User: Fold these one by one.
Assistant:
Number 1:
Amino acid sequence: MACIRYIAPDVDAALAFYRDQLDFAVDKHNPGKFAALVRDDLILYLSAPGAGSGGQAGGTPEPGRWNRFMLVTEGLDDVLARLRAAGVRFRGELSGGGAGRAQLVEDPAGNLVELFEFKRG
């Protein structure tokens, strides 16, 4: 099992994004402060800045750098069309080099998620 923590100034908006757009299930939710979401073997922790251990580690946690996690998907074109229709923000263009195709999307705080589809055959 892998766990990732993202900083989200609006935890509730980020929770809705991951639940409604990327098919995460909500495990725990402390409105405005914290959420734990699950998809397959991944646990995603969303924390408000200054809440819990993220705010006590020194410095000021901020969302939106280039760190990201990757979700492997099939039917990437359909997924991207659904996300565009929902008004999700994209970063950069769809890439097609290497082992497959990928597109970066931003959660409501600007944290990145890479949607990836392996080449067929």
Number 2:
Amino acid sequence: MTNHWDLIIGKNIQGLRRKQGFSDDQIAKYLKITPRELSDFEKGTRPIPTSLLALLANLYGVDKYDFYEENMGSESAIPDFNFRVDSIAVSDLKQIASFKKIIRNYLEMRDLVSPLQV
């Protein structure tokens, strides 16, 4: 039986993957799962572990709770980079995810401090 939340999360992870130009094989290797498992997660026929959601959130530049948004679309708090994703190695994906996590944390801290500077 398919869960409503699994469908929403699946739609969001697929939308962000496509928007950022990553193939299912690249993301499967990054997550250390099979492309079939990724397909099941994206279709919402299988719940995705939160540990994998956290990895995807860092790579896509979003908060892991954003995946639960019904109308998330394919927005990211961090602007997309323009590079050829078809030639990116899994180790590069890990570096990109780390970099986007740093940027996202900076933006969150900036937003928290800004109201204090009145």
Number 3:
Amino acid sequence: MKKIATMALSIGFASALLLAGCGSNNDNAVSNGVNKMLDTTEQLSKAIDSGNQAKVKEVGPKLEDQWSSFEDEVKKDNKDLYTKVEKYLDPTIAGSKAPTLDKKALGTLNNELTGALKELADKTK
């Protein structure tokens, strides 16, 4: 009986360690992803401010790939912030692909997206 109890405790302890490790990997993926996106929104902001439409078209669409690499984790763990990021992400990407640059509108969207990403970064620290 003692062997069974010891074995059950060992399995439980190992499971707890494994689950704890999985959670931190997900947190790291989200944190790294958010940091990459924040770098991209900063580059996009500079391109918008300078009126460099070619750079806007190059940088803006990167946000989509960066977000897709970790968005499922955000959706699962932070639904409100997921919705907030999505609210500004899609129009920002669309604006970056537009044939003409609307500096004011795209700048506002990018700033709102940056704010949502900063909230997410604070939440995942």
Number 4:
Amino acid sequence: MSLLSIIIPNYNYGCFADRFFGSLVAQSMSLADAEVIFVDDGSSDDSLAQARKWAGRVKCRDFKILAPPRSGKPGPVRNHGLDQATGKYLLSFDPDDEMEPEFLSSCVGFMDSNPKVSVVYTDYYEVSPAGKKHCVLPDFSPLHLRTQNSLPTSAIYRRELWDAGVRYRDNTTYEDWDYWVQCLLLGAKFKRIAEPLYIHHFHEANFSHQAEKEDGAAKARIVLNNPGFFHKEVRGWAEDFLRGRAHAPSFQRGYIPTQDDIVKLSDLIRTGEI
């Protein structure tokens, strides 16, 4: 067993390889007991050639390059890599982003020192055409996941969660949100490190753009995938939304309605105010 498995789900991100892998080899933590699992989802660019190039440069315990059949969704790609991971700690990290030098040492060190913590995540910088900004995430609360996803994909967690059956589902484009709900239902304890330790690059090829287009259905699937986590009124909204009922709107992007939201909406419909 290795200390850390780093899963890299990739599709046509070869142009970002030097930036990402450069940040990986620049980590202050030694990678001697870490494995890198690069999973390519049928790229048509030079992604595989870039991965092979960096396989000889990253001084890690093992560097696997996997090329399963094309999926078109990041969840199954992550699952494919995680299924072969041997790490005590697991990390899925998108290769269009990059790590700050202390990212791995801070997260792994925190997990080593806090055995009751199951998942650790950090603040980050966002870089877009508008510039660079520091994104401060909230300290974890289970209530957050009932309405919005306050956790990044790049959280590090213990493999016991994977071994207990948590998987990325392919019926929602908010697959990471769904994943963290599954972890929470298994009793996972989440903690935030209040430092910006990685950089998220916002660009036109981000998969998140596709997720936004499918916002309502993606949220409804999270609710129905995890019915015990959501109030019956919210489950009813999810079922009605997927049936295309006019009284079950999507609500704002990235927000799952609460019981109160749905009751208020029903009152407005009943009184003819909308």
